[in-house]
Amino acid sequence: MLNKLYDVLIVGGGPIGLACGVEAQKEGLDYVILEKGALTNSIYNYPINMTFFSTSDRLEMANIPFMSIGNKPTRTEALEYYRRIFFHFNLNVKLYEGVETLTKKGAIFEVKTSKGRYQTKKIILATGFYDLPNLMNVPGEELPKVQHYYKEPWPFIGQKVLVVGGANSAVDAALETWRKGAEVSMVLLEEEVDQNVKYWVRPDIMNRIKEGSIKAFTKSRIKEIREHEVVITTPEGEVTVENDFVLAMTGYKPNFALLDQLGVEMSQDEKRQPCYDELNQESNVPGVYLAGVVCGGLNTREFFIENSIVHAEMIMKDIKEKIDTK
Predict the structure, then answer these.
(1) Residues 9, 34: contact at Cβ < 8 Å?
(2) 5 CB-side CA count, 13 A
(3) Of 215, 248, 281, which residue is a domain's last?
(4) Residue 79 belongs to a domain with what CATH number?
(5) Using CA atoms, how far apart are residues 240 and 324, in angstroms rounded to an integer?
(6) Eight-state DSSP code of residue 283
């Protein structure tokens, strides 16, 4: 059975999706937010001890202060802040309701979810990029010991851990597990860890590598993962190391399937950046808007919470104007 016709349906209940809901209320639009997991599901799935790169004031929305003990908020503080946003505005969010199909029939979109069906005049995709990991596509990647998400260090005490990647997630996982007693090695594509690693963390990992506490295979890549060992291709040739767990911190990508269903065009280069108007965030498909990091395609380092919150106001003003003029 179809639900009522909404003015706007927002896919994604992360910070940008919530910001879109707040702006929809301000504009008097009838809206619904669909989130396949928990509220701000991506932040919930961040490592438990993660600290944001941004300061709390830059993550604020709707003039609601974001209070944190330190200058840079933690994952827990962010979860609490967005929980307060959710209840303060009494946002219409349907949690644990994943979108399965999106189709356009004339001027109306039909949305099928895991729990029902919706009709809407406009759609906003604010789906982020944390749902689909970039796979290494090597033999053995499907083994249970291989993890593409890292939560906390306790399961790895006394274990031989291989961390793949050199960005913030990989560095955090390597340092945390090493400090709790894991034997940690890293596989880096480049000569050293990423230059964009948090500035207060990068010297720490560089020193641990320099002193030999954490072994780094530089300019290297995984060739094969076996039950008790991993084969690594290095500049000096293949190396086989004993291994209990592989933490593949290889990054994530947007859910292109939803974009493809709606006919959103992508750039033909390696970025696969969706087509949209920077003045109002509307894609090449009339009525389909993009908000947040999904705008960057595979270039996930261009859009963040703090520079994407403005998308919500831009989009809702455009939707309000177009609905009112009909």
Answers:
(1) yes
(2) 5
(3) 248
(4) 3.50.50.60
(5) 65
(6) B
Q: What are the structure tokens assigned to 283, written together? A: 């894609």
- Please report the pLDDT score of residue 304 as a whole number: 84
> What letter does residue 239 receive in the DSSP assignment?
E
Looking at residue 326, what is its pLDDT?
Answer: 64
pLDDT of residue 16: 96
Let me know whether 67 and 180 are in one domain: no
Count other Cβ atoms within 10 Å, centred on residue 91: 21
Strand partners of residue 8: 31, 122
Q: Are residues 244 and 257 in the same domain?
A: no
Domain that holds residue 229: 135-248
pLDDT confidence of residue 109: 96
> Tens digits of per-residue pLDDT, 237-264?
999 999 999 999 998 888 888 999 999 9
DSSP 273: P
User: Is the pLDDT at 1 greater than 60, yes or no?
Assistant: no
Residue 212 region, left (φ>0) first, then alpha (ψ -120 to 50), else beta?
Answer: left
